[in-house]
Design brief:
It contains 8 helices and 5 strands; from the N terminus they run E-H-E-H-H-E-H-H-E-H-H-E-H. With 199 residues, it is of the alpha/beta class. Helix 1 (14-27) crosses helix 8 (185-197), helix 2 (42-53) runs antiparallel to helix 3 and helix 3 packs parallel to helix 5. The structure holds adenosine-5'-diphosphate and thymidine-5'-diphosphate. The site of adenosine-5'-diphosphate (ADP) has 14 residues, from helix 1 and helix 8.
Length: 199
């Protein structure tokens, strides 16, 4: 069963579509596990709390993202996939390449080592990249009260994150679908429904 990941800069619209996507698949009678990164397990959620609030070295940040991911794979993702369930994760390793490499400037080779170590070859079957201009995403986030450590970053940080996501989509065209997130929720749902019909 497919492993589906949702990606995009903060405010791109991932969370808005997550539950709806799960409902569509459940309506077909499939088991769907909805999860998120960083997080998805008790340890991962504790690490998420630290990652979103505590100042830290950029490599500590990258290592903690992959530590949480190791636990997430072991306890949630791999068991679900092996019993035939769909897994929909709000972010996965593309976020590490986009934020820690694109945003923070960590060398990609360092992350590739962690990726091989932690994932042992596993990749998502489908990655939905919600792509919007940074100005639109930050306008959407402005409505939210408390901004976390990432959401407080400046626009140029998110420009680099967005560019890195788009580069990855070009690099791995077989699994990426770029969703123009600037459209209405209904228009985006229509496109998502068409993509799901192909699964
Ligand atoms: P993400 O999970 O990618 O950070 P969210 O789904 O939480 O983004 O969306 C951020 C904000 O933008 C929310 O307030 C949401 O209601 C709003 N939003 C999401 N998608 C759209 C859209 N297509 N058009 C207008 N507003 C949107
Ligand atoms: P998330 O809650 O999905 O963000 P939002 O819903 O606000 O879009 O993710 C929390 C933050 O963690 C987000 O700003 C991106 C960041 N992140 C990384 O920097 N690297 C990673 O590997 C992951 C999974 C997330």
């Amino acid at each position: 069963m497919p492993f589906i990941t949702l990606e995009g800069i903060d405010g791109a619209g991932k969370s808005t579509h997550l539950a709806w996507l799960a409902e569509q698949l459940r309506a077909r009678g499939d088991e769907v596990v909805v999860t998120r990164e960083p997080g998805g397990t008790p340890l991962g959620e504790a690490l998420r709390g630290l990652l979103l609030s505590e100042p830290m070295h950029i490599e500590t940040e990258a290592l903690l993202m992959f530590a949480a991911r190791r636990e997430h794979l072991d306890r949630v993702i791999l068991p679900a996939l092996s019993r035939g369930a769909y897994v929909i994760s709000d972010r996965f390793t593309d976020a590490s390449f986009a934020y820690q490499c694109g945003g923070r400037g960590i060398d990609e080779d360092k992350l590739r080592v962690l990726e091989d170590w932690v994932q042992d070859g596993l990749q998502p079957d489908l990655t939905l990249l919600f792509d919007v201009e940074v100005a639109i995403a930050s306008q959407r986030l402005a409505g939210n009260g408390n901004l976390d450590r990432f959401e407080q970053e400046k626009n140029d940080f998110f420009e680099r994150v967005r560019a890195q996501y788009l580069r990855r989509a070009q690099q791995y065209p077989a699994r990426f679908r770029i969703i123009n997130g600037a459209r209405s929720v209904e228009q985006i749902r229509d496109e998502l429904a068409a993509i799901l019909n192909l699964l």
